[in-house]
Amino acid sequence: MSFGKMNTFVDIIDRTQIKDSDGFSTQTDKIIASIRAFREEKHGSKKWANMAAFTTADAIFKFRKVPGIQVKSGMILTCDTGRYTVESSEVFNNMYVEVIAVKVDTSEG
């Protein structure tokens, strides 16, 4: 994948639960990386038709692997079109990460 195709700026966010001294837990977002990525929105191509297992997926993100960071389900990706929850991620060629993500409604958080 060429660097020119990676024209979307993405923040990888990890949500963590923090308990305060009174025992109440709050959820915080921590940006663990800001990267450039290739984003493909859902459309009627043959590739998306073959992804029947991911019927709720709205976008695919492809980016270079960040050393020391493992992208897992439940993490959040943010970009200029909104927030996306990671459904699945896969490392290929030990160099790139492909993430299948679901767009988060603004009413959900």
Write the layout of secondary structure elements.
Layout: E1 8-19, E2 25-41, H1 46-49, E3 59-64, E4 76-79, E5 82-92, E6 96-103
Antiparallel strand pairs: 1-2, 1-4, 2-3, 3-6, 4-5, 5-6
Plain-language structure description:
This protein is mainly beta. Helices cover 4% and strands 53% of the residues. The protein is built from one helix and six strands. It has a six-stranded antiparallel barrel with strand order 1-2-3-6-5-4. A hairpin with a 5-residue loop joins strand 1 (8-19) and strand 2 (25-41). It starts with 7 loop residues before the first strand and ends in a 6-residue tail after the last strand. The mean pLDDT is 84.
Key features?
6 strands, 109 residues, mainly beta, 6-stranded antiparallel β-barrel, 53% strand
Query: Roughly what is the average pLDDT, rounded to an integer?
Result: 84
Can you list the strand order of the major beta sheet?
Answer: 1-2-3-6-5-4
Number of H- or I-type helical stretches: 1
Helix content range: under 10%
Shape: globular
Strand content: over 45%
- Radius of gyration over alpha carbons? 15 Å
Unreliably modeled segments: none
Give the gist of this structure.
This protein has one helix spanning 46-49; strands at residues 8-19, 25-41, 59-64, 76-79, 82-92, 96-103. With 109 residues, it is mostly beta strands. β4 and β5 (82-92) form a beta hairpin.
